Amino acid sequence: MIRVVVTGAGGKMGSRIISLISAMTEIAVVGSVEATGHPIIGRDVGQGLGLGKTGVLVCDKLVDCIDQADVVIDFTNHQASLNYLKIAGEKNRAIVIGSTGFTSDEMKKVNELANNTRCVLAPNMSVGVNVMLKVLEYCAGILNDDYDVEIIEAHHHLKKDAPSGTAMKMAQVIADKLERNLDEVGVYARKGLIGERTKKEIGIQTIRAGDIVGEHTVIFGGIGERLEFTHRAHNRDNFAKGAIRAAQWIVDQKNGLYDMQDVLGLRNKK
After folding, report:
1. Which residues are catalytic?
2. Does this model's pTM top 0.90?
């Protein structure tokens, strides 16, 4: 039995993860965390989420419940996640992080802290998205510089960061395969007389509207044809299921930083 603490327990992702785990037998929620002042603090997490009584109370400090766990699943925000990663390392507990919006300096800190524990960090836990990342890498290697690359991502109007972490991961995978520096070739907005598109640029455009869960389309545009790859998330369960799968996988790994490509066995496969 794998024992899990879920942070952000009252949020959209945290609540779905807890709900899905409640129906499983090989993994169980033994702790839950929310931000200080949240209305479900001190309540049974099951009752707070409409799941019935579970015996697991919601606390506002990870250190208060992490000792019971094998792994932490965290979907909060990049600043909170850094703190939770630090605590996980100090307590020798594995952690799965789905937060996005990390700065380059924060990612350096993540890499440093991950040396002290086992950590899966991925901007998108969806199995489908991670298969798509592998496909994009493969296609970029075949198409090379003969096809223009454009990425369009759409999310709900409450999402705070842009472009999405998933879109940036897609762009980075393609840029790496094409041996381009994304910091130099990424184009995030176009307006006015912008001139002819350069061959090296990778366009990354953002849409925010309504309750869109998440859509990502990558276009490889050539002369006379184009290839389009699209992933649409219909609900958050695919992300939650991926996070649970990552939690089950990471507990038996060596210390270090991993992503969903590792979890799914896609790393270095052709």
Report:
1. 155, 159
2. no
